[in-house]
Amino acid sequence: MAVVSVGVRPQVVRDLPLVAVAVVWGSSFLVVKRVAEPETVVAVLALRFGVVLPVLGVVAWRRLRGLSLAQWGGGAVLGVVLGAVFLLETYGAVHTSATNAGLVISLTMVFTPLAEAVLRRSAPSGAFLAAAGLSVLGVALLTGDGGLRAPSAGDLLVLGAAVARTVNVLATARLRAVRGVDALALTWVQLAFATLVFVSAAPFAGPSPLSVAASFDAARWGLLLYLSLLCTLFAFFVQLWAVRATSPSRVSLLLGTEPLWAALCGVLLAGDRPGPLALLGAVAVLAGTEWGRRRAPRWPAGS
């Protein structure tokens, strides 16, 4: 017994932070619904990222000084794309259920390998295509309740966010200007330019970030800090640590449980009650994205 526990415990300890990231990411859709309203989405995003930037900047300062102009430019491009991802995702989350948002966004896991295959002109396996088809069918059942209603505007916005996430992943992997750039420095640049997108859009999209911050009570500030410190800052540092402490496949496996936690939070905490066909769709999304993630083609990094 003692020998087994000594061997297992270090792996469990390494896995727990990744599971925690998957849980907080899954819960973030519900938190967004409770901290943001349709007219305050942009202001909340500016505040969420604005809280993180100074903390991350202190840690990344020396590495940022070593970036070239081209690397700053590449990071800026990725930051604008990241800003689009969060705008679509957050607007979508406030217009649909937490369960739907968390499951629809998981389509990124099948969209990304499909898009990569198109760019490489390489056909994915039949098993992966079947998994992708199962995921898409699941989303159709989930958001349309088996064809009984049209998908909501929120569902479509989150679907757009999944496409934008795919663009962000592919751009990060293929943009030459950011290849080999320090991950901490690149993350700060992306977050900074995404924040610039939100601040620039704020005058045209509702109340200012400062007025929204002043209107928050203690509960909403707690939710905002949850999004900033746990869903953003904590998640980033855990991923940075995990790629050195465990295998990429294990990181992918554990972080890939995010949609499961999103569904659980939606049902258990938000009171989402999907109908029978929508529930079947949710199961199909979870099964299809997990199957697709395992069957996705693997290509050498940077190739």
UniProtKB/TrEMBL annotation:
SUPFAM superfamilies for the chain: Multidrug resistance efflux transporter EmrE (SSF103481)
Subcellular location: Cell membrane
Name of this chain's protein: EamA domain-containing protein
Superkingdom field: Bacteria
Pfam families: EamA
Upper taxonomic lineage: Bacteria, Bacillati, Actinomycetota, Actinomycetes, Kitasatosporales
Any one Gene Ontology cellular component term annotated for this protein: plasma membrane
The keyword Transmembrane is annotated on this UniProt entry: yes
PANTHER family listed in its UniProt record: EAMA DOMAIN-CONTAINING PROTEIN, OS03G0707200 PROTEIN-RELATED
Key words, A-Z: Cell membrane, Membrane, Transmembrane, Transmembrane helix
Species: Kitasatospora setae (strain ATCC 33774 / DSM 43861 / JCM 3304 / KCC A-0304 / NBRC 14216 / KM-6054)
